[in-house]
Amino acid sequence: MANDKENQWSRVNRNHNMYDGYPAQEPPRPPRTNASKGSGPRKPKKNKKKRHWILAIFLWLLTLGFIAGLAGAALFFTYANDAPNITESDLASENSTQLLDSNGNVFWSVATQDRDYANSNEIPKQLKQAVVSIEDRRFYKHHGVDPIRIAGAAISNIKGSSLGMQGGSTLTQQLVKLSVFSTSTADQTFKRKAQEAWLALRVEKNFSKNQILTFYMNKVYMGHGVYGMKTASEYFYGKALTDLSLPQLALLAGMPQSPTYYDPYLKDTTAAKERRDTVLKAMATYGAITSKQATEAMKVSISDGLQDLNAKAEAANSTRKVTDAYASSVIAEAKKLGYDTTKSGLKIYTNMDSNLQQSLYDNANDGSVTFSSDNLQIGATMTDPNSGHVVAQIGGRNVNTLQALNRATSKNRSSGSSIKPLLDYGPAIEYLNWPTYRTVEDKKYKYVGTNTSVYDWDKKYMGNITMRTALTQSRNIPAAKTLEEVGGSNAEKFVNGLGITTNSTPGGSMAIGIDVSTEQEAAAFGAVANGGTYYKPTYISKVVTADGTTHNYKSTGTRAMKTSTAFMLTDMMKGVIKPNATAADAAITGLYQAGKSGLVAYADDAGMPDQAISDAWFTGYTRSYALSVWTGFDVPSENYIPWTEQDLPAKYYAKVMAAAMQNKSNTDWTAPDTVTTKVKGNIVEYEVKDASWSNGGLPSVTSITQSGETPSEAGITTNSASTGSTTGNN
Fold first, then answer.
1. Cys-Cys link to 254, which of 249, 270, 275, 337 (CB 3.0-4.6 A)?
2. Range of 284's domain?
């Protein structure tokens, strides 16, 4: 530091000496030339008036600036007066974000390690110098707010170079932000900045620089669920801070800016090394180390001394597997809302039902549902169809690595036939007014504009059948032909309204499968369950920030389809769960429910056995819950689901839903006044009231037995419903 003072004063002395030889006086004015006296009359001075205007404008601007300054100062002190209180406890507290379930119980903390608080004498002087060098070189000169730093940061950002110090906030301001403020981008307002500056001044008044630096180094997030540099030293290196080398200390000092990006455990450690070296250069510039020391330290491998974290992570995560996928989705949603969950010290209240979450986990892992292989995976999402709340979610089974792949929200697997009610038959009812008994063809067919034939699993054809039969038996050709009649633009509009996007205008093979997630299907089928209102799936109900401010969140429903469409789809999908239908294993005795299964086969040239399955789905619902289940292998080219295990998702659904509905009201759906009942072939069918529709010139047929309710099952008499045959309004 003595050298620094000498250098600073030497620069001042040089500047002083530079001007010593020049007296502080104005240079003499040159004499007026005779030419100015000229012959002839003098010209009038036209710019005298102009100077008056310039002076007037200047005075006005000066006055306005003064008024603006007063107003700004008044506003600043108004905001400062409303600033939250900040205590030593706030400054010293751990900053870990907590996730709470729907009953207010903590189920996840971003911190996976208990923080070990470091006293000032446990922190090496070199680490303190490293932090100050990279984060706030004028730390010991300012009083909490540094106008010079703010100006310098602005200039450096414009130039694009500042040794990693583009921010204008001092270390004290950063400490205040981490202690009592939200880091949500929505909260980055002038009021917040004013309060942050005011509190920084108060902190500087009440605490020493050494205390402030100690608070900061114990509070920052270091990655891997670790808070504080002492804890990070023990977790990463197995050593005390005082035992670390210069390059190791420099790495720790540089990590808080972006612990995920500068993680030295990544496969590509380029960013971590660049950050560490930036700290070393800053230390040399600051005078904490010599240029030679910095150069030697930069030669050391970034992985020098790092411990293997696998065993530590497994021990820390053993109790977190149950809620891993849900926590992952909550954190992702929080980030979309603008929160930094690693820095904010947030309390995030979620919609998770811990009992349902445990049920999803247990049924996938404890053997109550049989999985033929340990590598056979699952993804499942359960929602409340009346609010869009995600109440439970599981992203895999036999999970070893947490916060990794969440199969429940992955959108890279085909839905198979589970998409048919949403992409094909829903739009047909919504836009073409098709009744549940509308005739469709199950005959030889090729996708329009191609030479590709469409087949079902049995390579057979059922001929003319009703839409109800086609859906409950999951026939592919009627679905493809229905999408063709509906039109790709109508189908796209319909599924978009249900939160499902497609890469192109639907057509061809998309009729029997598109890439989708269980989260999307649970929300979309939930809209059918509640009568046609789509709620975006949401995990967070409210967020309480470090300053005690509460932010509430709620999904606002939007009308996605007519009530008649929703009811008729539900009525048809009830038949999917009946005996001899495609998802009989999802049946729960006495429970009113509906749903749709989906299977994805391999291409003929995939080299898999006949009827091998790559993806199996079931999405079902009651009036209280919607549950979407996917099963398959992460690498389907290496393994497959045997045909005999196609009902695994339905069996899993039945286990979970049966338990979930034990304390819920079991109520059936009632037909809205926009539909008309018609009994055909002892099956209760429905049509849109007073709507015009076409049977496509096809003969009238009846639905197969058990594909729908009989009049007695539906609780109606033939007298209260029209009977007979019809060919539609052709």
1. 275
2. 121-307
